Amino acid sequence: MESSLYISELLSQHDCVIIPGLGGFVGSYSPATIHPHYHTFQPPSKKLLFNINLKQNDGLLADHVARRENILFSEANEKVRHYADECMAQLKLKRQVLIRDVGRLYMGQEGTIQFDQDPSHNLLAESFGLQPFFSMPIRKEQEKPAEPAPAVVDMPARMARKALSRPLKWAAMLALPVGLAILLSLSGYDRLRSGTLNYADILSSISVRLSPFSSEEKKAGPETMRRTPVAETPKAEAQKPAPEPVVTPEPVKSDPVVAEVPFAVIVGAFRIEENATRLIARLNSEGIPAALFDVTPGGLHRVTSGTFSDRGEAIAALHSIRARGFESAWLLVK
User: Fold this and answer.
1) Confidence label for 207 from pLDDT (cuts 50, 70 and 90)
2) Domain coordinates in residue numbering, the chain
3) Domain 263-333: which topology?
4) Full strand arrangement of the beta sheet holding 291-295
5) How far from 140 is each of 137, 143, 164, CA to CA, in Å?
């Protein structure tokens, strides 16, 4: 009996084929797939599952065998039952049962029948003739970054700079001997010819001539200015007095008010002493006498606008300070 062939023929036409005494095959639609790594395209197919609980004979397989082999239904039913018994015997011996174009049955470690579908055969009638194929991935060529345009060199301007730099170099080279000659003429060239002037005198004379001329020499004329040496100014007189350092006045710190009066109007309390000093300066600028009252054990610097021995005067002063914009002021009662 070619039962395996009959099973594959029925699965291509139906979604459920039962082998009485063995189990049933259940098919479901599986859409087309693309493998992300191998780039293979699989057409739509029918995915099969094997259910060992489907053992009741529905007559589908036996009727198909009877029509294909031209035998009675009872004989076909007996052939199907005999095929199921042979499959169970092979599975109990830990052997595989191959079903043509369907897959293989084998016994698992838990003693249950397992099924693997044959991926090379597609049982979906709508996909008849469609085969899986491989497609090479499309690779986009990376665009090369555009090369930067070559810098445009202004050749006339460059040649003009070169032509100008040469005269400047010669002028710098000639300026040194000309300057030395001028200095020597100012330092007493006649004394140098007579031999009474040494190199130390030349240097001292040059340093003297580099200093400013006095007012009398300017009035006497250029001849006197050239021949009359000017006395060197003492270093102590030439040096300018150093500027006096700027002293930044430190903020005035007011000492806490030590008073035994029972009432005090507190305008504010600050953790930082500078904030308390700023409030005192603000109150004083507005014509309100203020001072640092005390420093609490918790480190708060309390500012008061007045201390009073009479409760009525203290309350009146409290209303007055609040009316002037310091609404957070409060009355301290010892």
Assistant:
1) very low
2) 3-132, 204-232, 263-333
3) Alpha-Beta Plaits (3.30.70)
4) 291-295, 301-308, 263-270, 330-333
5) 10, 9, 55
